[in-house]
Amino acid sequence: MDIYTRTGDDGTTGLLFGGRVSKADPAPAAYGDVDEAQAAIGVARAHVERGSELDEVLVGLEADLWVVMAEMATAVENRHKLVAGASRVTSGMVDDLESAIDRYQARYEPPKEFVVPGQEPVSAFLDLARTVTRRAERSAVVAIGQVADSEVLRYLNRLSDLLFVLARWREGGWVAAKEVPGQPRRPEDDPRTPQDQPNT
Predict the structure, then answer these.
(1) Cβ–Cβ under 8 Å, residues 36 and 68
(2) Do residues 88 and 69 lie in contact, with contact meaning Cβ atoms separated by under 8 Å?
(3) Domain 24-196 is classified in which CATH homologous superfamily?
(4) Alpha carbon 171 to chain centroid distance?
(5) 148 pLDDT band (50/70/90 cuts)?
(6) pLDDT in tens, 35-74
(7) How far apart are CA 71 and CA 88, in angstroms?
(8) Which residues pair with 116 in a beta bridge?
(9) Alpha-carbon distances of 148 from 4, 83, 92, rounded to whole Å
(10) Which residues share a beta bridge with 14?
(11) What's the CA gap between 157 and 198, in Å, rounded?
């Protein structure tokens, strides 16, 4: 099987179940961001012990994101062809994320202020994956925001929350932004948008 097809040389890309759109279309841009989020999670997973609890959680998330990308790569007129849990995100998948958030957050005292990423490599990679997931969520709003029966936005929102929780659980302790030497910072001084913060 050739890795190159030449079919995208004209600046278009094929969709699942047929159809082609510009590579600049909101859909490829959005599922491309999800692809990047999946790769970022993979980087975190590459730094944990194979078969460990965290490894199994991250593998599951990576598998879920194939479902997210499949749904996002499907034209509206072909959504009836999607299969729940295989090419369409389900409410149960969102529920599973919420259960994982509750389970892991119960293992530590959640921070009450902004934290400084980078306590150790895996948590830093998880924080990176979280921010990419937030971008994917914003892209998805543009790409499929008008699809009333889609669970993609809820899934990506909960996924970013879970990645935040996993990062804090992994590091076991963190540096609060207010503890950084220098001029004290207030929450209102933070340049990030509310969408970039956990639990939004």
Answers:
(1) no
(2) no
(3) Cobalamin adenosyltransferase-like (1.20.1200.10)
(4) 20
(5) confident
(6) 999 999 999 999 999 999 999 999 999 999 999 999 999 9
(7) 5
(8) 175
(9) 36, 17, 17
(10) 20
(11) 9
SS3 labels along the chain: CCCCCCCCCCCEEECECCCEEECCCHHHHHHHHHHHHHHHHHHHHCCCCCCCHHHHHHHHHHHHHHHHHHHHCECHHHHHHCCECCCECCHHHHHHHHHHHHHHHCCCCCCCCCEECCCCHHHHHHHHHHHHHHHHHHHHHHHHCCCCCCCHHHHHHHHHHHHHHHHHHHHCCCEEHHHCCCCCCCHHHCCCCHHHCCCC
Tokens of 138: 């914003």
- What band does 194 get if pLDDT is binned at 50, 70 and 90? very low
Q: Say how many C-beta atoms besides its own lie within 10 A of residue 179's C-beta.
A: 11
Per domain, the residue ranges of the chain are: 24-196
